[in-house]
Every structure is written in structure tokens, then in C-alpha cells.
């Protein structure tokens, strides 16, 4: 019996899910701006994915949304009066600001934090560093709540270490686990932590010209120090600037890894062969690379389908399942490649296709929705037990969504004071369902 596991914690889509087009460099986000969203459907699509993986025996947890709109932040920006007055004032004078402080982007928990398991860290604890997400205003406001939420989930200081976000400066731009992967032969033994960056602030080098490189090498180096990681188990690689300019805003839009398998595009990294060689050497051999040729899947199709924004899930037979969004099936070149890949009898054995349209249209696929945490059996035992997906929680959360979520939301609806009340009522109930305590601003004031 295994005594170590990889758990996935998926972000529960928040009640203010809307298409604001806030994320420059994310093609899906900007191209769907101002369309009407369906928060209820979005939340249920995410819950269905969580339940399916839990039913297959994977450790699957729920990561809570953030309170939006962020009224406290608006007060810091000079808006005054009671909460309804603040909301009315910002809606009248700066609707763009209101849309940003109402974003439900915390649903993409791959950006919540970087996680190092106890087998890798200097003090033998599981380490979490909340991502500062400083490149985008609507996401840069998340890290305080992210840390509170993580501490309520992983609330034993002897087992879990929590670090605040890195300084909110471009030199330490950190996008969390979307640019971090861990390779290992066993989840409970020391692995190789792989940090991918878009630019190096000190030391120069090539950078993308059209879209921002959100992650820096300096951020990864700082996190490695904070987590007490060993240099001989670290690999830093630069993402290909050309693919960033083609809409690959995070590494998890062009590659994904799990255990000893790396599924990546031919154009993912600079000096790609050297990256593979270093990973394999530091892993102690046995790295299996599944590389998708540019001639078979172009970058535009990879971005449109989110082929690489997928999940690799370990199987008992030593191979991997690949979780992909339905958009892969709808993209002919991608679907043809995937059928050929399966027929090759390589390390990826099976496809699992999910309808995540609401998330996809806002710029995030299966990998964006989840934060991975490798846990030993004794660590698993002290995680908040109420956040694990099961039959009863699935039923209860679906009922909760039906009760509190709207089935249509536009940017204009964000000015509705009733929506603010609905959100707060819903989140207060959610913290009771999941036994998280008082973690939201509306509960702490």
C-alpha cells in the first residue's frame, strides 16, 4: 500500500464569475471579454470534475473562492461610505476597477501558491508560498486571502509551513504552481523541483516582445531558499519567449509533468535538450518525455485547445491518465495527435475529457483549476478533513450553488448591491460547510 499521495485541490468558482477580459496575454480571456457568464454552470462544471476524480480514487480537495467585490481594497483607494455607497461610487466613476475587484480568478488555484513536499524541504515540513501574481492587478489582490485559506486547510504548524507572498515587485514576479512542476519516482521520496521562468531580471537574456513574461527566475530562486530545497534537486529553465508572445502566458499552457513523465511541446523551452538532460540527471534517470512536434500541433492550436493545460494523474500500473478539456476534441489537429499518442503505448495510457467551457472561456483549463500537494500518509491525516470531495460534500455543494449562484452575470450586474450580499451570505455558509472558521473580510470585521 502506498504511504504517499498527490492530492489535487480544485478552485471552486466564485459567485462573481464574469468575462471581464482582465488578463492581457491570455488569448481566451481577452477574446471573450464582455460576454455573459454563467457562474452556476461554471461552479457545477468544476464540481463535476472534482467528483469524477474522487470517484476514481484520487485524493481530491476543494479550494474556496475569495470574497468579491473587494470592498476593503476600494476603501484603501479612497471610496467612502457604507458598503453600498462604496459599490455605487466605484460603479459610477470606475466600472473597470469594479470589474477587476470582482474577478473570480482565484478559481485557478494553480496560481495560488508554490508547494514543496516534506521529502524535498530542509525542515521536513510541507511548504507553501502564496503567489504574489503582481503582473495583473485583479490577481495581485489575492495573496492575503490565499494564505488565510491555506492555513485553514493545512492548519498544523508542526507539519505545514506557510510563507507570505514575495515582495510585490516585478523582479520577483511569481505565478505559483503554473510555472512549477515536481518530478519524482515516488511522491514520498526526494524529487526534482522544476521552476520555469519567462525572464531573468538580473543577468539579462532574451525576453518576449509582445506579451509580458510574468514569472522571473529570481522568484523561483527565492522560493527555493524559503522552502529549503537542495541545489542538486533544482532545475531552472526559461520558457521560449516566442511562445509567450503567441499566448502561452504560463508554462502550464505548453507543458505538464507528473512523477517521471513530462508532456511538453517541441517549442516549450529555450535549450530544450539541455533542460531534458538536466531533469533526467537530477532525477537519477528514468525521465520519460512525450514531446509534441510543432509540425503536428501548432502553437495556436495548443493554446486554443489547452492541450498542455491538462492533468497527468498517476495510475496503479505506473502509467498516466491525461485530463483534457473538451476543446481538445474540438480541435482536429490536437485530437488526431492524441489518438496517435494513445496508440503508441507510451507512458500516457488514457484520456479523460471534461466540459469546462465556463472556465476555458475565461482563460483557464484543467491544470489551472488545481493545486497539487504531495502528502505522506501522516500528513494527509492532519489536513482539514472537511475539504475532501466525497458523495455527501458533492451533493451539499451542488445544493449550495443552486441556492446562492446566478445563472447569468455580466459586468453591469457587478454594481448590484444584492449581488454583494448574496456573495457574503454564500461564503459564510461555505466556511461552515467546510469547517474553515472565519477567514473572509466580511467575517473578520
TrEMBL record:
Group of enzyme by EC: hydrolase
SUPFAM superfamilies xref list: Pentein (SSF55909)
UniProt keyword Hydrolase, yes or no: yes
The protein, known as: N-succinylarginine dihydrolase
Active-site annotation: 175, 250, 368 (nucleophile)
Family in the record: Belongs to the succinylarginine dihydrolase family.
Gene3D superfamilies xref list: Succinylarginine dihydrolase
Classification of source organism: Bacteria, Pseudomonadati, Pseudomonadota, Betaproteobacteria, Neisseriales
Catalytic activity line of the entry: N(2)-succinyl-L-arginine + 2 H2O + 2 H(+) = N(2)-succinyl-L-ornithine + 2 NH4(+) + CO2
An individual GO BP term: L-arginine catabolic process to L-glutamate
Keywords: Arginine metabolism, Hydrolase
NCBIfam families from the UniProt entry: arg_catab_astB, PRK13281.1
UniProt xrefs under InterPro entries: AstB_sf, SuccinylArg_d-Hdrlase_AstB
Lineage top rank: taxon: Bacteria
Pathway listed: Amino-acid degradation; L-arginine degradation via AST pathway; L-glutamate and succinate from L-arginine: step 2/5
Gene Ontology terms, MF aspect: N-succinylarginine dihydrolase activity
Summary of the function given for this chain in its UniProt record: Catalyzes the hydrolysis of N(2)-succinylarginine into N(2)-succinylornithine, ammonia and CO(2).
Keyword ATP-binding annotated: no
Amino acid at each position: 500500500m502506498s504511504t504517499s499521495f498527490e492530492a489535487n485541490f480544485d478552485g471552486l468558482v466564485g459567485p462573481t464569475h464574469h468575462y471581464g477580459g482582465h488578463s492581457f496575454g491570455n488569448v481566451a480571456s481577452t477574446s471573450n471579454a464582455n460576454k455573459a457568464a454563467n457562474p452556476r454552470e461554471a461552479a457545477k462544471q468544476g464540481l463535476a470534475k472534482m467528483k469524477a476524480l474522487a470517484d476514481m480514487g484520487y485524493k481530491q480537495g476543494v479550494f474556496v473562492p475569495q470574497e468579491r467585490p473587494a470592498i476593503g481594497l476600494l476603501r484603501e483607494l479612497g471610496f467612502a461610505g457604507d458598503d453600498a455607497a462604496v459599490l455605487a461610487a466605484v460603479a459610477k466613476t470606475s466600472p473597470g476597477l469594479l470589474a477587476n475587484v470582482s474577478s473570480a480568478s482565484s478559481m485557478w488555484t494553480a496560481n495560488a501558491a508554490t508547494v514543496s513536499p516534506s521529502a524535498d524541504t530542509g525542515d521536513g515540513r510541507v511548504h507553501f508560498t502564496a503567489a504574489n501574481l503582481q503582473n495583473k492587478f485583479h490577481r495581485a489582490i489575492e495573496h492575503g486571502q490565499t494564505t488565510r485559506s491555506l492555513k485553514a486547510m493545512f492548519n498544523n504548524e508542526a507539519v505545514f509551513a506557510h510563507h507570505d507572498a514575495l515582495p510585490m515587485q516585478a523582479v520577483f514576479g511569481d505565478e505559483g504552481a503554473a510555472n512549477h512542476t515536481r518530478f519524482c519516482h515516488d511522491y514520498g521520496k526526494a524529487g526534482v523541483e522544476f521552476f520555469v521562468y519567462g525572464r531573468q531580471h538580473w543577468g539579462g537574456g532574451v525576453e518576449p516582445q509582445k506579451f509580458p513574461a510574468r514569472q522571473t527566475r529570481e522568484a523561483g530562486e527565492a522560493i527555493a531558499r524559503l522552502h529549503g530545497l537542495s541545489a542538486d534537486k533544482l532545475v531552472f529553465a526559461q520558457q521560449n519567449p516566442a511562445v509567450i508572445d503567441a499566448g502561452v502566458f504560463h508554462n502550464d499552457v505548453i507543458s505538464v509533468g507528473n512523477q517521471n513523465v513530462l508532456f511538453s511541446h517541441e517549442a516549450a523551452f529555450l535549450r530544450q535538450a539541455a533542460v531534458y538532460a538536466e531533469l533526467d540527471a537530477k532525477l537519477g534517470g528514468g525521465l520519460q518525455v512525450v514531446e509534441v512536434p510543432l509540425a503536428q500541433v501548432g502553437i495556436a492550436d495548443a493554446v486554443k485547445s489547452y492541450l498542455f493545460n491538462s492533468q497527468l494523474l498517476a495510475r496503479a500500473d505506473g502509467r498516466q491518465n491525461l485530463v483534457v478539456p473538451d476543446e481538445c476534441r474540438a480541435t482536429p489537429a490536437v485530437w488526431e495527435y492524441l489518438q496517435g499518442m494513445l496508440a503508441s503505448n507510451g507512458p500516457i495510457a488514457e484520456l479523460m475529457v471534461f466540459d469546462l467551457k465556463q472556465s476555458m472561456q475565461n482563460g483557464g483549463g484543467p491544470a489551472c483549476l488545481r493545486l497539487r500537494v504531495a502528502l505522506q500518509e501522516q500528513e494527509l491525516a492532519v489536513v482539514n478533513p472537511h475539504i475532501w470531495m466525497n458523495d455527501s460534500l458533492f451533493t451539499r455543494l451542488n445544493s449550495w450553488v443552486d441556492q446562492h449562484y446566478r445563472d447569468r452575470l455580466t459586468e453591469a450586474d457587478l454594481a448590484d448591491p444584492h449581488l454583494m450580499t448574496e456573495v457574503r451570505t454564500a461564503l459564510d455558509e461555505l466556511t461552515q460547510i467546510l469547517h474553515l472558521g472565519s477567514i473572509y473580510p466580511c467575517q473578520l470585521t
